[in-house]
Amino acid sequence: MTHELRLAVVEDQPLYRQMLAGLLNTQSGMRVVAEAAGAAEARRRIKPGGADVALLDVELPDGNGVGLGVALRRADPHIGIVLLSSQDVMELLLDLPEDVRRGWSYLSKSSATSVETLLQAIRATARGEVVLDPTLVEAATVRAGSALASLSARQYEVLTLVARGLSNQGVAEQLGLSARSVENHLGAIYAALDLPPAHNSRVAAVLRLIEDTARGTAR
Amino acid sequence: MSDRTEPPAASALSLRRERFILLLTSGAVMSLYAMGAAVQTATIYRMSEDFDYQADAGANTLVPRLVANAACVVAALLLAALFAPERRRGAGLVAAFAVIAIGGAAVRAAAQLLFGFYSNDTLRLLSIDFGAGVVVIALSLTLGLIFVTSARRLRYQELANMNQRLRAAAALSALQSEELRVRRQLAEGLHGTLQNRLVLLAARVGDLAGTLVEVHPGAEGDAAHGVHDPAADAVRELRQLADELDRMREVDVRELSQMLYPAGVQVGAVQAARIMLRRVPPEIAVKFTVAEELRSLHGVGEADADRVGRRLLLLRVLEEAISNALRHGHASALEVAFARPKPGVVELTIDDDGPGLPDGEPTLNGLGLLADRIRALGGELTLANGPAGGARVRAAVPMPRQVMLADRG
Question: Which of B56, B313, B356, B395 is the most exposed place for a label (fewest CB within 10 A)?
Answer without folding.
Answer: B56
